[in-house]
Amino acid sequence: MADLQSWVKAGKLKVQEDVISGLENTPQALIGLLAGENRGKRMVQV
Questions:
Q1: Which of 1, 8, 9, 31 minimizes the number of CB atoms within 10 Å of its CB?
Q2: Residue 40 three-state SS
Q3: Tens digits of residue pLDDT in 1-45
Q4: Per-domain boundaries in the chain
């Protein structure tokens, strides 16, 4: 785990985030997550 964190800090590993805006979009975000539409972390911004 520490190796991964050091790689991210060094820029050797890029973290991808998929941010969905709005609590009202949570059901679509979950459906997309289960269908594999996201890359990296999927988050709902409230």
A1: 1
A2: coil
A3: 788 889 989 999 888 999 999 999 999 999 999 999 988 899 999
A4: 15-46
